[in-house]
Each structure stands twice: as C-alpha cells, then as structure tokens.
Amino acid sequence: MIQLSYKQQIAFNSLSIIAGNALYALTVVLFLVPSGLITGGATGMSPEERLQPTELFPEMATLDCGTCNFGDEVFDNTMPTMRAFGKRMLENSIKPEYECFELGHIDTILGMAKKGEVPAHPMQFNFVLGVHGCTPATVENLAFFASKIPAGSTWTVSGVGRAAWTMAAAAIAMGGNVRVGFEDNIYLGKGQKAASNGELVAKVVRIAKELGREIANPAEAREILSLKPLQ
Description:
Layout: H1 6-11, E1 19-20, E2 36-37, H2 47-51, E3 60-64, E4 68-70, E5 73-75, H3 79-91, E6 95-100, H4 103-114, E7 124-129, H5 139-146, E8 154-159, H6 164-174, E9 177-178, E10 187-189, E11 192-193, H7 197-210, H8 218-224
Parallel strand pairs: 2-3, 3-6, 6-7, 7-8, 8-9
Antiparallel strand pairs: 1-9, 4-5, 10-11
C-alpha cells in the first residue's frame, strides 16, 4: 500500500496499493483501485484537521489506534478522538485501515469494534514498525502482531526508514502485504533516494516475485480488501 505525505494527499488522492498477494498499480490506474487517505496528519494537528480528508468520501482511510511516542513528540490519539474518527467512517461508509504502532493498539481497536464504535469485520490492519519510541521493526515483532488480529483480516506492514525493506520481505514471506511510500521511507537502498513512489512500488514487486508471490490486479485487490467491484 502506498501512502503519500499529508500535503500530497490534499493535492491529489493518494494511491492505495498493497504489494505481495495484493495490489500493484501506478498513477494511470489510480481510479481502478481503492483510494486511501491518511487521517494521521502530523503531530500537533487537531482531530478536525485530520478528519478533513474524509470529506472527499474515499473508500478507505487510516484510523490510528492509540497514543504513542513519536520521536521527541507524542502522537495523540485519545479514545474520544478515535470514537469520533470511527463515527465519521461509519457514517460515510469508509473502510478503515487500522494503524497499529504498539501491540495494545490492536486490543484497543478490537474492543471498539465489538462495541460498534468503528467498522468491524473484515478488518484491514497496518503495522507501523520502527518509529523511534514505538515498537522496533523486527521480524519477531511483526510475526507477533500478525498473530493477534482476527481470522479473515488482512494486513500490511510499514517499515519506517531503514527498516522498510527488511519488513517488506518478511511480510511477503509470511503471506502478508506491504505499504510503501514517501511518508515512511524515501530510500531504495543505502544512500540511494527514490525519485518517486513508483520506484518504491517497483522494488516491492521485484521482492514479491523473487519470493514467489503474485501481484493482484485491481479487481482482485478490491476482492481481497472486501470492497465492492467497480461497475
């Protein structure tokens, strides 16, 4: 799955692409795959500012599942904030991508789903690993996170910075999926900056093919994510 910066989202809908047994598409097929917006924004933004992208009625949007340290700052996601985000997504028929930076975030969002405060099954999770102050990006941690979500859920991983490609390969080998994009990492390799998000996607596709994973077409991707087929 690709995620762009907040400014890029506002300028143009971000690509939502899962690589591995999932989605692969470039800008030319942007409207053939689910559009996904980030409600995370940046530390210090108000909940109202972060909810602005949902006014575009995307098919999917992120929902951050708890407060955590974020480098020297705090990424504030209180229970009232998450309930407000869940309510908006329920009202606008938006499928959340549940962003989990810590193990407790999974438990929190599952409890909210049971209460009907956020959309429930089938759920899509994204495990964000490697943020300074949050869960380290290790294969052991990724496997543990993946083991704690409900059967029938789908998941991706975002390895932050230098962890991007290690986590990508591990997720593909585990049968999961991958999110890549300039929000999380700008390098193809040590000292080699990517010229575009497309280059990051292309590298994930190469990894997936080397590991024997097929890349879904847009229609298959929509089915994987339990989204309605395009008419």
